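Milestone 3.1: sequence recovery, worked example.
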């Protein structure tokens, strides 16, 4: 089937231009600048007058909760949510139930996604203290990377012994994504607050950033960077949340880096001052930090120290968010609002619009060596998102799709709105409707 998208402002590879995109089945077969190709034969014509087209977002950090936690989210529900946000590909984390720490469990996830996922997918393999021997068995053309939790985690996925970490860094054939928070510092801070609160087992959520502190983040991130330099491992540090950590990363093109950094939407949008209005809805690990930290992260979006913007989309039921700094669950559903949030920052002058596809599509494709995705290019898969720059809409119940049924973005007004998401040449989302019958494909990697 031939589809033509005409009259669009295309944002891709560092520039904006008025043009037409021609799609044949799954593929982009032409990108025409300053002309509309109405003379061509077509089966489907999409008039994108007044709209912007971006390459589909590639979110390298999500938790879709399947298997084992499907009462609050699952692959089908959260991939629908992704589609509604212009996310055409995702990479999902291993801390499900059971954890994805064997080859067999990893393969089960791929099978589930093939049946259920509305957009394209891959899965991280979870590192433990005793499964390093499995790393050489991972298929580098299918598996996006190895996830290591160098801080508090559930089950046996905490790897904070330096010898075990060094072995992991030496032997992994794939990129390592690290969650970096120092458990000893966190536990020490908890004890300090218990003394202050005379043995209480929970504290106001505003103290979360002082328990999971700047020092806890920096100590662990600096260890990961040191091990990567010593072993030659490819390291991607997840969800940078502090200004101090930015000193660990270089300002140069991602193609020249062995060590890269991710920032998540929550740390770009919220600060500790937002705890007063949003409470535990914005509790996440690592914690939301100060205004000064947020401003430093925003600044680093344009100077090359931060390479990728992701979401760490992590749904919980609202009753699991009850409590404070210790008892309330950490994580929030954000994937539907990542692209429009970044476009809001562009409107505020934080970064140019042209930088957004680099951080959310081009760089993930480069870092993970994804085949034929992440760009609006002839010969690439037609993964696209059409966005209205003048929608002026308010987020409210019925306008978000996550299974857990809430978002910290509720009641927020956005100027930009995703109108259509196209995955492998097929519309998967259009004006509030997720199209039934469309399924994503496995991401393929070149190694």
């Amino acid at each position: 089937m031939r589809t033509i998208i005409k009259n669009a402002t295309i944002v891709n590879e560092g520039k904006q231009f008025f043009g037409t995109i021609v799609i044949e089945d799954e593929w982009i077969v032409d990108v025409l600048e300053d002309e509309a190709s109405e003379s061509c034969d077509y089966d489907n014509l999409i008039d994108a007058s007044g709209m912007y087209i971006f390459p589909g977002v590639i979110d390298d950090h999500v938790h879709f909760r399947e298997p084992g936690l499907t009462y609050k989210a699952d692959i089908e529900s959260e991939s629908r949510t992704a589609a509604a946000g212009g996310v055409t590909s995702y990479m999902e984390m291993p801390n499900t139930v059971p954890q994805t720490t064997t080859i067999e469990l990893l393969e089960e996830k791929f099978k589930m996604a093939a049946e259920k996922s509305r957009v394209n997918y891959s899965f991280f393999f979870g590192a433990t203290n005793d499964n390093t021997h499995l790393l050489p068995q991972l298929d580098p053309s299918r598996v996006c990377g190895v996830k290591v939790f160098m801080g508090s985690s559930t089950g046996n996925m905490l790897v904070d012994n330096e010898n075990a970490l060094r072995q992991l860094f030496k032997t992994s054939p794939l990129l390592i994504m690290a969650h970096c928070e120092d458990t000893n510092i966190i536990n020490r801070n908890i004890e300090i607050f218990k003394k202050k609160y005379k043995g209480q087992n929970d504290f106001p959520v505003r103290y979360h950033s002082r328990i999971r502190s700047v020092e806890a983040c920096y100590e662990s991130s600096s260890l990961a960077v040191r091990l990567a330099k010593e072993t030659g491992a490819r390291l991607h540090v997840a969800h940078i949340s502090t200004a101090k950590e930015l000193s660990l990363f270089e300002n140069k093109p991602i193609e020249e880096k062995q060590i890269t950094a991710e920032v998540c939407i929550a740390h770009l949008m919220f600060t500790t001052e937002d705890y007063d209005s949003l409470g535990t809805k914005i509790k996440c690990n690592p914690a939301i930090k100060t205004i000064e930290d947020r401003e430093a992260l925003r600044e680093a979006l344009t100077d090359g120290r931060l390479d990728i913007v992701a979401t760490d989309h992590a749904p919980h039921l609202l009753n699991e968010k009850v409590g404070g700094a210790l008892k309330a669950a950490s994580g929030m559903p954000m994937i539907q609002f990542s692209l429009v949030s970044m476009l809001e920052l562009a409107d505020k002058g934080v970064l140019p619009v042209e930088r957004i596809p680099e951080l959310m599509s081009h760089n993930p494709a480069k870092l993970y060596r994804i085949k034929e995705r992440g760009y609006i290019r002839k010969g690439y898969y037609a993964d696209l998102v059409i966005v209205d720059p003048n929608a002026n809409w308010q987020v409210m119940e019925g306008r978000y799709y996550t299974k857990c049924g809430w978002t910290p973005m509720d009641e927020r007004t956005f100027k930009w709105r995703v109108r259509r998401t196209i995955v492998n040449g097929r519309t998967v989302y259009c004006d509030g409707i997720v199209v039934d019958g469309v399924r994503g494909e496995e991401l393929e990697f070149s190694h």
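The radius of gyration is 21 Å. The mean pLDDT is 95.
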